[in-house]
Amino acid sequence: MMMHDLRTYRSAEHLAREDQLAWKIAEVAADPVAVDNDVTAMIINRIIDNAAVAAASVARRPVASARAQALCHPFAPGSTVFGLADARVSPEWAAWANGTAVRELDFHDTFLAADYSHPGDNIPPILAVAQHVGKSGADLIRGLATGYEIQVNLVRGICLHEHKIDHIAHLGPSAAAGIGTLLGLPVEVIYQAVQQALHVTTTTRQSRKGEISSWKAFAPAFAGKMAIEAVDRVMRGEGAPSPAWEGEDGFIAWLLSGPEARYQVPLPGRGEPKRAILDTYTKEHSAEYQSQALIDLARRMGPKVGDLSQVDSIVIHTSHHTHYVIGTGANDPQKMDPKASRETLDHSIMYIFAVALEDGGWHHEKSYAPERANRPETVALWHKISTTEDPEWTRRYHARDPKEKAFGGRVVVTLKDGRVIEDSLALADAHPDGARPFVRENYVQKFLTLSEGIIAPEEQKRFLAAAEGLADLGAGDLMHLNFAVSPDRLGTPRPTGIFDYKGNGK
């Protein structure tokens, strides 16, 4: 890996294009290096993973809304939409609909470092473009390897959340770079598209704080949609704000740590394979990633604690990130509110740990149901839980050594009789270095479980065969990487909006 030093340059200083981060990213994207077999296998796993969570969310309101918007933009040849057999829509709208479906349940892959991300969000926009332009499975694999590589390495080097910027600011550039690889675009074009995508996908972290709304699911889909539009615009000869990161009035100077700040972003050298996807990990549980190990720990501690009514207090000693984003350090009253939205409960480790203790596990729907959140004994236990930052867990959260890196915590349960029960877990069971690392069989089972009763068995088999045969899919065959469901599984029709306005007040 090559380390790229990143800082602000005054307008009077000369910064050659070849030394700009966007150009370095574009060079990586344009490098025709082969994709390793284990990377290809993991890309297939993540395509299956995305489809699994999309199937489980296909009838939910935000997904139905996004799908309805996409259907107002039919296009030929176009791209597919999850849940529909024959519909073809403009690729940016397919990315919008499918990206929302993938993200709605917060249940797909993750990478955490200086910042955090869900790199699987790259798949919907890159796949949508690949379908529309008739690319092959091998082309798609190359594009997705780039998307993962760029997003993961931006997340390694640049922290966004400390400046209250939503993490989709790393996704727009990565998706644009991946599309550039897919289409075989020259460095100059990818360079401009990456900068344009950064410029239009920088938004605030209020998306994930306070009264968290459905925009949490829409935000990555928006980034993917903007990336497609950015590439299209630049392919027509248009430019972008440059240098986007390093400029005197640019990203670092005014949105990150200021003109004196220094960052280092690792990127593969010329001819070096793109392997960053192998450093990412998926979720066994439908909840914020920092809660994965803690759910597994609650499952393990429940029998030791016994009668939960005898709990006096529970303190979760964990990383800065977990404490301040999903813990009591966020100072969010909504995280303790039984009437909070699903999106907010997903960002409350206090709620999640209480339910996991009581139920011995986690369910992507039942664990968030209003009647579950309002159960009196759950509320009582929930309000006895707090978090605190432990410097050692913060150090391990940011560690570069994979053997040191950890996303869990230590839990101290104090009972009313004074007894103390404590335990710790560094990594989720499903993590590559966890107790039960996810392999292809687990991804397939996740798909079959989440799509049961939604996708017909024959359609399940057809999709899995297409996904597992991705490397051999020819030009035009990528339409098979979709699934169809019965119309009665698509949820209640939603009110119309601007795009499907028919006139006459309707």
UniProtKB/TrEMBL annotation:
Residues 285-470 form the MmgE/PrpD C-terminal domain. It comes from the Bacteria. InterPro entries: MmgE/PrpD_sf, MmgE/PrpD_sf_1, MmgE/PrpD_sf_2, MmgE_PrpD, MmgE_PrpD_C, MmgE_PrpD_N. Residues 20-263 form the MmgE/PrpD N-terminal domain. SUPFAM superfamilies: 2-methylcitrate dehydratase PrpD (SSF103378). Keywords: Lyase. GO terms for molecular function: lyase activity. It holds the Pfam family MmgE_PrpD_C. Coiled coil: none annotated. Monomer. Belongs to the PrpD family. This is MmgE/PrpD family protein. It comes from Paracoccus subflavus.
